[in-house]
Amino acid sequence: MPLTPKEVLDIAALARIGIGEAEAQAVQADLNNIFELIGQMRRVDTEGVEPMSHALDLTLRLREDKVSETDQRELFQSIAPQKEAGLYLVPKVIE
Question: What does the pLDDT read at residue 81?
Fold first, then answer.
């Protein structure tokens, strides 16, 4: 069901987008093309097609879960303005 220029102007008003009559006709053509494409896609027979999690059937390479960085916690906490029990103290910002 194609949109009319008035419907395009109403949609633009709801979206708080200011467009004129000429621009509404250009947008109308674009939106109608998009709706036609959606209609074509809905008419495609997908019976028996298994859903895919990704368009490319790839498997991710997994890396070994091991620590690769050195522990610098004491260094980082030594320069913190305020800390307590190993935690950083920050000013309260919400009352």
Answer: 93
